[in-house]
Amino acid sequence: MAIMNGTRPMLRHVFMVFILLVAYHYIPSSLQDQYSAYTNSDEELRTELDSGLANATFVMLVRNSDLDGTISSVRALEDRFNSKFGYPYVFLNNEPFTDEFKRRVSVLIRSEVEFGLIQQEHWSQPDWIDEEKAEKARKKMVALNVKYGVLLQT
Fold first, then answer.
1. What's the CA dihedral at 108, 111, 47, 24 to 10 degrees?
2. How far apart are alpha carbons 114 and 59 in whole angstroms?
3. DSSP state of 118
4. Using CA atoms, how far apart are residues 98 and 74, in angstroms rounded to an integer?
5. 119-147 CB burial, b ≥16 within 10 A, e <16
6. Residue 101, exposed/middle/buried by CB under 10 A (0-12, 13-18, 19+)?
7. Do residues 46 and 64 share a domain?
8. 85 with 61, same domain?
9. Cα distance between residue 96 and residue 118, in whole Å
10. Segments forming the whole domain that contains residue 112
11. CA 11 to CA 17: how far, in whole Å?
12. Radius of gyration from C-alpha coordinates of the chain
């Protein structure tokens, strides 16, 4: 009888784990189409997910004057990671990239590279921002030693 009493709690735990596993599968599959499609063996989705590569792009907001830092960052990414995977890059600037910038960065990257221009009104602080309040917040970040807080000072 002592063995039987020890078995019941264990059976309860096994039953509870089984219920949780079933719920873990059926709840997400009923709520999310992609999960449902993957678990229902949609071969195209399964092949994409099994490839191991995420649908991703490196996006960098840089200026022409940031060339040396950009080269250093891209070289590190390529040497340590992206040379194996070949994710594309998109470089965005608030003014047209110089030919030198494009040439020196492109030579480091084997994958696709795009250079884009962000309109000035999208790069800068919007006109509707309360400048007095924003300035107080920037000063507070500097006082609190927030990383890059000093870069926000006007």
1. 50
2. 10
3. -
4. 17
5. eeeeeeeeeeeeeeeeeeebeebeeeeee
6. buried
7. no
8. yes
9. 9
10. 53-123
11. 10
12. 26
Same domain assignment for residues 151 and 116: no
Are the beta carbons of 153 and 138 closer than 8 angstroms? Answer: yes
- Render pLDDT for 126-141 as a digit per residue (tens, 0 to 9): 889 898 998 898 889 8
Residues of the chain above pLDDT 90, percent: 43
Same domain, 7 and 64: no
111: three-class secondary structure by DSSP: coil
* pTM flag (> 0.85): no
Tally of CB atoms within 10 A around 91: 21
Residues 57 and 118 placed together within one structural domain of the fold:
yes
* Closest-CA residue to 69 (of 100, 96, 105, 123): 105
**Calpha distance 34→9 (Å, rounded):** 37
Number of structural domains in the chain: 3
Asked if residues 91 and 114 have their Cβ atoms less than 8 Å apart, the reply is: yes
